[in-house]
Specification:
The protein is mainly alpha-helical. It has a single domain, classed as Tetracycline Repressor, domain 2, CATH 1.10.357. About 65% of the residues lie in helices and about 0% in strands. It is built from 16 helices and no strands. The longest helix has about 30 residues, at about 235-265. It starts with 20 loop residues before the first helix and ends with a helix.
Length: about 325
């Protein structure tokens, strides 16, 4: 790694917290690689992880697949599966972001928010980024192999979506839809990892996650819309504009909550789940009501607010089994 240029290694990427641990504590030679994985701004990994954790919690009351024996009583997610999904989400998020940065390297240098990413700023070569991506993907595959055969093949099936996503913003105003299909695959995989099957409850959960991603990533995309227009890439933020964004967000988030409610009913969750959904609905409503699409800082704060939303849904599902 000593051959890599150290240009900008002491600079924080625009949407990373100013006090992130990578810039403060990581060894200098590793910082560009950790930034490729977005370890300096892990919100994306959490948003990838939550649908998987929701699904594990949803499936906790179901008969387990013959190859898996839960360590805890029925109704609570297995801690080993929780840990495997946690590790898998961060590793595969890192591999996906590295792939995305390789594909978008010529665009990223033209966008203020992404200009300091390791590839366009010259800190990491494309070849080394590709090697790093492969290493992360192999580690993710090792984690996937710990699941039952059905879950393994289901996980492999998601790779097609991962491969096409970075190209979608070049051909459609709806790349957020493809991101939703990709980022919420864990809603299917979690159930499959526990039961070895799929059913309508995780499918409704998956649909809710897709609507959720359409909402939060539209908010996120408003940070880049001026640069995106200049370089010719597309997004829902550009399609809706500032005037129509809020009505669309209300529609997306309504789809989120309706789908989550249907999923809970199909899984026969108790009243505490629906109390949690009520709290989560207020959280999403706050995002839309207070959103200022013309202010990037405002958009980033509301985007990050989806992490605690995911936490509320997870505990709502877990408690919904109990009462």
């Amino acid at each position: 790694m000593s051959e890599e240029r150290d240009q900008g290694t002491d600079q924080t990427i625009a949407d990373a917290p100013a006090d992130n641990w990578v810039d403060r504590r990581a060894p200098p030679g590793w910082r560009p690689y950790f930034k490729l994985s977005r370890f300096d701004r892990p919100i994306g990994a959490w948003l990838l992880l939550w649908p998987g954790l929701w699904s594990l919690a949803l499936a906790a009351g179901q008969p387990a697949a013959p190859s898996w024996r839960p360590l805890v009583a029925a109704g609570w997610p297995d801690p080993i599966l929780l840990m495997l999904f946690f590790l898998g989400a961060f590793v595969m998020r890192g591999a996906g972001c590295t792939y995305n940065d390789i594909v978008d390297r010529n665009f990223d240098g033209l966008v203020e928010r992404t200009a300091l990413r390791p590839i366009p700023s010259g800190q990491v070569s494309v070849a080394r980024a590709a090697a790093y991506m492969i290493a992360q993907a192999l580690l993710g595959f090792v984690i996937l192999l710990s699941f039952n055969p059905f879950a393994i093949w289901l996980g492999i099936a998601s790779l097609g979506l991962v491969a096409i996503y970075p190209f979608m913003k070049r051909i459609t105003y709806w790349p957020q839809l493809v991101l939703g299909l990709t980022f919420n695959w864990g809603a299917l995989l979690g159930w499959a990892a526990v039961t070895g099957t799929l059913s309508w409850a995780p499918l409704a959960l998956y649909l809710g996650g897709i609507f959720w991603t359409l909402g939060y990533d539209t908010i996120y995309a408003h940070q880049d819309k001026e640069d995106d227009l200049l370089i010719g890439v597309k997004s829902t933020a550009i399609k809706f504009g500032e005037a129509r964004t809020k009505p669309w967000l209300y529609a997306f988030y309504a789809g989120t909550m309706i789908s989550l409610a249907v999923s809970g009913m199909l899984a026969e969750l108790g009243p505490l789940y629906f109390m949690g959904l009520a709290m989560a609905t207020f959280m999403l409503t706050w995002q839309v009501r207070t959103l200022r699409p013309d202010l990037p800082g405002n958009c980033l704060i509301r985007f990050r607010a989806n992490h605690p939303f995911g936490l509320v849904i997870f505990f709502a599902i877990a408690l919904g089994h109990a009462v």
